[in-house]
Amino acid sequence: MQDTYNYLVDALRAALTVFDALLHDCTQERAQAARGGDEGWSVVEIICHLRDNEECVLERMGLMRDEADPFIAAYDQEQWARERNYAADNLREALAAFVRLRTSHIAELAALTPAKWERTGQHQERGRITISNQTLRVVCHDTIHAAQLARQLGQTSALP
User: What CA–CA distance (Å, rounded) separates 118 from 133?
Assistant: First the structure.
């Protein structure tokens, strides 16, 4: 199982490189104009979403690590996007905040024992979750949004 945990941490770390490469030449103007995906979000809105999601999963991971089977509240991503005005946010600042949060998340996960990886919480919408399956969900989430960013920035074709 330890290999699985290491792969998850490596995938979280690799996502930082992917997002950096995708956004390397992206201007603020382009980040606000390039829209797509189910939400119709711009590039900057996606990065704000990733940043806020990272903050949320880092908090959830800490709750599961430190408490016995805690309640894990859901959140409304559309509401956060409106309330936090993602559309007007600064791409580089949002990306830097995401990187800081992800780096902290990686360090905390890397310090977990195998038993801690399997600690649970009761998610409001998904039921019982573990740190390991929450982390797998984040890895998948990263992949989906990386592909979305690549399409919106014209760096790949739209494959089925």
Answer: 8
